[in-house]
Structure formats: C-alpha cells, structure tokens
Amino acid sequence: MNVGRTPDALWAALRFPDLSLQLHLRGGDSCGPMVVQEAGHRPRVLSCNEAAQKTSIRPGMLVSAAHALVPRLHVRTRDCTKQAKALAGIAAWATQFTPTVSLASPDEVLIEISGCLRLFGGLRPLSGRIRAGLAELGYRGVVALAPTPTAALLLARDGVDTSIGDRHQLRPALARLPLSLLDQPPQTIALLASMGMHTIKDWLSLPRDGLARRFGQGMLDEIDRALGLLPDPRPPFSVPDRYSTSLELPAPAQETEPLLFAAKRLILELAGHLALRQLGVLRLRLDLGHAHHATTPVLLGLSAPSRDAGHLVALLREKLATVELPEAVESLCLVAQETRPLGPQNQALFADGRPSREERWRIIEHLRARLGTEAVHGLEMFPDHRPELAFRKSLPGQAGDGHCELYRPLWLLPRPRPMCADGLLPKADSPLTLLDGPERVETGWWDDFDVKRDYFVARDGSGAKLWLFRQRTDRKDWFLHGIFA
User: Fold this and answer.
1) For 44, which DSSP code?
2) Separation of alpha carbons 157 and 13, rounded Å
3) DSSP β-bridge partners for residue 483
4) If both were cysteines, with which of 13, 127, 138, 480 could 417 make a disulfide (CB 3.0 to 4.6 Å apart)?
5) CA-based R_g, the chain, Å
C-alpha cells in the first residue's frame, strides 16, 4: 500500500514507551513498587512504576541496587513474545477506526485515518476517541498525527502528543527533533554528534552528496520519507481469524470486581477486533489462572451474536457472581470460541414503547447468566397426545414446527392433583360446573405410561376455569390437571 505520498493522507502513530511494564499494570492497581528487568546476567531496570520511582529507583540502574532500596520489590522480566502479542491486540482494536493499520516496531502502531475522519466527526473527535479508548484498554501511550507515517513515528518518539495536518508544516516541526529518534545505528548517531550535528535541522543544513558518501543513502531516504519526498509504504496488519488474549494481574485477586475490571479491558479489545470483520460473538470463554490449581473456565453463551462491550461485561458480572474459585486468580485469558456475522438492524419509524428484539434477548441472557443455562429455556410442541409429554424444553427463541388447535390451558400442574367426588361429579371448595367435555385421551401403551382419561373444562364458584380429567378405570377417580388463564 503506497499511501505515504497521498496529498490528503493522515497517519496516527501510537507509541507505548513502557509497554513491558504496562502489561503487568493494566490488570489493576499495583500492589507496590514494581520494575521490569531485562533478561541476562546482572540485569538492569528497563522501566518502573510510580511507586518505585518514589523510592529513587530509575531505569538503567542495576536490579540488585533497586532491591537494596526496596527489599520487597516486585520484579518482572520482559517477555518479548507477550509484548508482541499485546501490540497485535492494540492493532486489532484499532481496526474499528480504519482497516489501514501497520505494526511499526515492538512498541509502535501506525493507523491511516484520513479516510474515516467524516465518519467519526472530524480529526479532534477521532483523536480524542482513540486516546480515550487506549485509556480504557489500560494503556498509556503517545499519539502523534502527521501526513506521513515516518513523521508521525518521529513525533511520537519525541514523547509529546502532536497533530500536524499540513504537509508544509512538516519541515519546521521535524527540524527540532534529535537525530537519535531515527532508525539508524547508534554508531552513526554518535559520530554525527561528535561532528556537532544533533538535530534534523543540522542534518538538512549540510550538502546531500557529501552526507550520502559519508553516511550512506539510508539516512537521507528516511528523512525524505518523513518529509513526504519519497514514498513511505507500510506492511499491513492482518487481523487474526480467532481472538484470544491474556492478561496478568498485578496481584492475586479473588473478588468479582477486580476480575471484572481486568476482564473489561480484554472485552473492549475484543469489540474492536469484531467491529472490522462485522462479527458478533456467540460463545465466550474466560479462563481464570491460579498458582496451584487447574484453570477455572467461565463460559458465556449468548442467544444472539453481539459485540456490545457493555452488554458482554454485564453478562460476565452475573456469571462471575456464581463462580466458586479454589484460590486467588493470577491471570486471565479471553477466547472468542464462536462468532457469527452481525448484520444491520432495522429500526421502527414510530416508537411503540415495546422492547426491541435485541432488548428481549438481553433479558434472557442476563437470566441465563445468573440462574444457569438450564434454568431458562423455551418450550416447543411435541407430537404426543398425553399433556405431560406434549411440550419439550428448547433453546430460547427456537421455533418449533408443531401447533395445537385443541383448547388447552397455559398452566399445567407438575402432577395431576386428586379431587374428591360428590357422586359422579368432582367436588372443590365451591360447586363446579362442567362446561365442555369429555375429550378422550387413550394412548401410551408402548412406553409403560398408559393413560386412559376423559378431560373436561369446568368453572368453579369464583369463575376460574379448570381442566379436569376422570380416569377410565374401575375407580373412575377425578384429577385437576391445569388452570386456564
């Protein structure tokens, strides 16, 4: 994709200078001073949180010296694999704004946003939405905007949120930046500094031919790409087909709220991943990792596909309230097990006050998350003349092919209730009047549930309509089987 020279191109560079530390802090508040060290002999501090900085711990110092300042210091080792996966998760989340996303380095993401400015209401609302979204995900980063991707990266590496929309403003904006921000070997930057060249402005003031002979063409090309004088193509980011991500908690947690706080950030990331592909999730699994026990799975099933983060968080809250944990949770892993295309929904022209189909599904899903999947179900007709077996449980919303044209009560008793008889007629608290019947049901000889009944519709003294039957046996006992609405 060669969009670097497009006149109206606008790139946003997202840079996370302490991404290795943020991976351990985005799951919740830190339990105290924490540092991230590099692997190897005599490791040094790569980054540290605010609590560690207050104890005079600084990046670059030996971890052993940091331990001398804080004996109970929390030390984590940088995991490049987890860092790369986290950056890919940020890139997948960013695809909800534009499909043109690229990974620039181990801690930088590039997105081209000129084509979606009108969709999000302009540059300021879009940039504000990106910054707010990153904060909700639990990341602190620098967001810089410029007409070329290289210029956006250089401005982001300077550490200040910047927005430059005009290509003609690039030269003065980039001139003040130090040469150390360029993707050049440290030996080259040190040699330039020894010659008195520290900024891009110093570099631009010298003859190009001499610089090319002395330092090669690569540095000239990088600055030309930043200024828009050369094409600046970027490899596109490919969104994975299946979403799966994990999060390490800064401290073990066993209560619902800390777990939900961390899981919400994973769900927000999932929502951005689903938005680009126009998908909704149907089955979601949250694995709760423990130190000395097997993983506790939390399964979330939806009746209709959805990517509404608020709805998914609310369902997960209900589900977590019913989970018994063997011990404290140290990590989370969110997996989208099943997704479906999520098409547009038609809206009513005139509001009628009735809940929409989506709202009705959400009520069902909340009940199933709180009470359990088996506790909330639908009913469908089954071809059997015995009333007890004429209905079967089904998934909510699943339409059955059967229908019944007979007059049947909505409420059947779990078991028929015996009634006293006054002569040939049944007797209740008040006199009964037979309105309809008999309807004969005689079946079931093949499965040891043989019934021989005559059903009647009766009304009691209060006006309630009852559904009764009399056994067609020698005793001819009466039973109450249902009540009409």
Assistant:
1) B
2) 9
3) 411, 466
4) 480
5) 34
Residue 3 confidence (pLDDT): 41
CA–CA–CA angle 284, 361, 352 (5° rounding): 150
Q: Which helix (H) or strand (E) holds 92?
A: helix 80-94
Q: CA 251 to CA 253: how far, in whole Å?
A: 6
The CA-CA-CA angle for residues 376, 381, 385, to 5°, reads 130
CB atoms within 10 A of CB 459: 16
Q: How far apart are CA 195 and CA 412, in angstroms?
A: 94
Distance CA(295)–CA(293), nearest Å, equals 6
Percent helix, strand and coil across the chain, each to the nearest 5: 35, 30, 40
Using the structure block, give the residue that is written with the tokens 């499909």.
Answer: 99
The residue extents of the domains of the chain are 11-227, 244-341, 378-485
The rounded distance, in Å, linking the Cα atoms of 143 and 153 is 9
The CATH number of 244-341 is which of 3.30.1490.100, 3.90.226.10, 3.30.70.20, 3.10.20.90?
A: 3.30.1490.100
Buried b (16+ CB within 10 A) or exposed e, 56-74: ebeeeeebeebeeebeebb
pLDDT at 142 over 90: yes
| DSSP summary character for residue 199 | B
Residue 275, φ and ψ in degrees, nearest 5: -65, -45
User: What average pLDDT score do residues 245-249 get?
Assistant: 88
Query: What does the pLDDT average to over 115-141?
Result: 90
Residue 224: pLDDT band with limits 50, 70, 90: very high
Q: Are 472 and 413 in contact, with CB atoms under 8 Å apart?
A: no
Q: Name the residue type at position 204.
A: L
Count how many Cα atoms sit within 13 Å of the Cα of residue 476 in the half-sphere of its side chain: 7
340-344 — which CB contacts under 8 Å span 24+ positions? 340/279, 340/280, 340/282, 340/305, 341/278, 341/279, 341/280, 341/305, 342/274, 342/278, 342/279, 342/280, 342/305, 342/306, 342/307, 343/278
Cα–Cα distance between 312 and 314 in angstroms, integer? 5
Give long-range contacts, CB 8 A cutoff, 24+ apart: 192-201.
199/175, 200/174, 200/175, 200/176, 201/175, 201/176
Out of 3-12, 307-316, 446-455, pick the least confident: 3-12
Rounded to whole angstroms, the Cα distance separating 149 from 419 reads 84
Strand partners, 428: none
- Say if CB 391 and CB 340 are below 8 A apart: no
Q: Side chain identity at 138, as an amino acid letter?
A: G
Other CB atoms within 10 A of residue 435 CB: 11
